[in-house]
Amino acid sequence: MSLHGRDVISIRDLSRPEIEDLLASARRMIPYAEGKRAIHPLADKIVAMAFFEPSTRTRLSFESAVHRLGGHCITIADPLVSSLRKGESLSDTIHMLTSYSDAIVLRHPNEGSARLAARVSERPVINAGDGAGQHPTQTLLDLATMQEAFGTLSGLRVVLLGDLRYGRTVHSLAYALALFGAQLVLSSPAALRLPDEVRDQLEPMGVKLEEEDQLHRAVRDADVLYVTRIQKERFPDEAEYLKVAGSYRIDNGVLANAKPRLIVLHPLPRAGEIAPEVDATPHAAYFRQAFLAVPVRMALLEALLGSPKARKGE
Amino acid sequence: MRELKITPITNGTVIDHIGNGLALEVLRIINVQSLDKDSTVSVALHVRSGKLGWKDIVKVENMELSPRKVNAIALIAPTATISIIRDYKVREKRVVDLPDRIVGVLKCPNPNCISNQVEPVESEFQVTERRPVVLTCAFCERRVDDFLHHLA
C-alpha cells in the first residue's frame, strides 16, 4: 500500500513491508543527504514545521531533509511567540497550517496531539514527538542505523538499557524490533523496568525478552547496545528521579568484553550516560545515527509527498 | 401475597440487574438533577437476585436513556438490563451492550492527554479488551480499566 498522502503518527501505522521500503529508500537517499547528488521530488512543496516544544536535532534534520529534496519549509520554532501563547487551540493552528502547506511535521508537549492534528488536517501529518508519546521517525532511524551496520535486523541481539518505563520511544523501538525478529535484552534499574502492558503486547509477537541487570554481562553477547537518557521531566516526582539518576554509565571498561562489532546507539542528547572516551572507539554509532535522521526523513517525506514523476526521473 | 418493594411506573425506564452497590453510580450517570421535576426516581439496593446473588435496581419515571448514557451504564454495570415502560407495560427490554468505540463518556486519566486540554474534541476510547473490559484512549493510547473514577 502506498504511503502517499498518509499520516505517520505511530510506528504501528506502518507495516513491516512499508518499513522495509522506507529503510531501502533511506539507503538510496544517503548521497543526496550528504549533498553529493541532487534530487528535487518536493520542488513545488511546502512543509510546515510546527514545533511547540524545544527540539534541535529533530527539527533541523527535518528541515535539512526538506531542503535536500528541493522543497520549502515554514517553521514555528518557538511556542513563546506563536499563536499557542495567545491561547489558540492546536486544532485552529492546524487548520491554518493546512491551508499554508502540503504537510505538517508536529512536535507538541501533549500526548495524542498528533492524532488530533491528523483528524483536523487535510494534509499528511508526521508526528515528531507528542509529549511522552510516540516518535515514529526516531524508531525508523534507529532501525536504519542497525540495518546499515549489520545488513539485517532479524536475529540481532539488542540490549535496551536505561529508562524502559517512562521512555515511550523505547517501547516503539521494542515493538519494531520484535516485528523484525530481533532478540531483546532488557537492562534497567529496578524502578524503571519495562511496564507489564508493553511486555504483554510484545510477547504474542514471538519475541524472547531477557532481563539482565548486570551491565557487563548484558553487553558481552550483544550486537547493539541502545542507551536511553533518563528524562527528569517524565518522572512523577523528583525523589524517584534522584534514586536512579546516574545509575548507569557506558565507558571503555564496560565495553572491554564486548564483541568487536557491537554498536552503541543513543537518541541524543546524552547526559553522562556515555563517556566521551567511547566516541573514539569503533563501537560509537550515535553520531552516524544522528546523521541517518536526514536520509530517513527524506525517504519518508518523499514517500508521503513526492510526485511519482520526480521519483521515476531519479 | 408478594410484597412490592418498588411500585410500578406508568412511563419510564427500569434498569435492573445492576451489580450490587453500583446503583448510586448509575444515578450519577442518569444525572437526577437534570430530570423533569415530576419524575420519581426509585432505587432498590441489595435485592435478592437468582442470576447475580444480589443486585440493585433503578426506576426512573418519564425518562428514556440516551445512547451515550446506555454506553456509560454498560461500562459501570455490564450485567444491567434496560426496560422501557409505556403505559405500565414493558415495550422494549435489552441487555446493555458495549460498542467498539466510546465517545464523550469517560475522561482520559492521562492529565497530559490532548483530549484534556482546551480543544474542540470529545474524549474517545476504543474497546481493546472485553473480558475484563479495557479501553484505550484514541488520542494518547492510555489504557483504562477503572471506569468509576473517570466518568466525564
Overall geometric form of chain B:
globular
CATH topology of the largest domain in chain B: Alpha-Beta Plaits
Shape of chain A: globular
Q: Give me the strand/helix succession of chain A.
A: HEHEHEHEHEHEHEHEHEHH
How many beta-strand segments of chain B?
Answer: 9
Kindly state the mean pLDDT of chain B as a whole number?
Answer: 90
- The helix-and-strand class of chain A reads alpha/beta
Name of the CATH superfamily of the largest domain in chain B: Aspartate carbamoyltransferase regulatory subunit, N-terminal domain
| Count of helical stretches of chain B | 2
CATH architecture of the largest domain in chain A: 3-Layer(aba) Sandwich
Gyration radius of chain A, rounded? 19 Å
Spatial order of the strands forming the largest sheet of chain A: 7-6-5-8-9
Estimated share of beta-strand residues of chain B:
35-45%
Topology order of chain B in helix (H) and strand (E) letters:
EHEEHEEEEEE
Contiguous low-pLDDT stretches of chain A (5 residues minimum) are: none
* Content-based structural category of chain B: mainly beta
Mean pLDDT of chain A: 92
Terminal residue distance of chain A: 21 Å
Summary, kept brief:
With 314 residues, chain A is of the alpha/beta class. Chain A is built from eleven helices and nine strands.
Outline the fold blueprint.
The complex is a heterodimer of chains A (314) and B (152).
Chain A lengths: L15 H18 L12 E6 L5 H12 L3 E5 L13 H11 L2 E6 L4 H8 L4 E6 L5 H15 L6 E5 L6 H12 L3 E5 L8 H7 L6 E3 L3 H6 L3 E4 L10 H7 L18 E3 L20 H20 L2 H5 L2
Parallel strand pairs in A: 1-2, 1-3, 3-4, 5-6, 5-8, 6-7, 8-9
Helix pairs in contact in A: 1-5, 1-10, 2-10, 3-4, 5-6, 5-10
Chain B lengths: L11 E8 L3 H8 L10 E9 L3 E9 L5 H10 L4 E6 L2 E7 L5 E3 L20 E7 L2 E5 L5 E2 L8
Antiparallel strand pairs in B: 1-3, 1-4, 2-3, 4-5, 6-7, 7-8, 8-9
Helix pairs in contact in B: 1-2
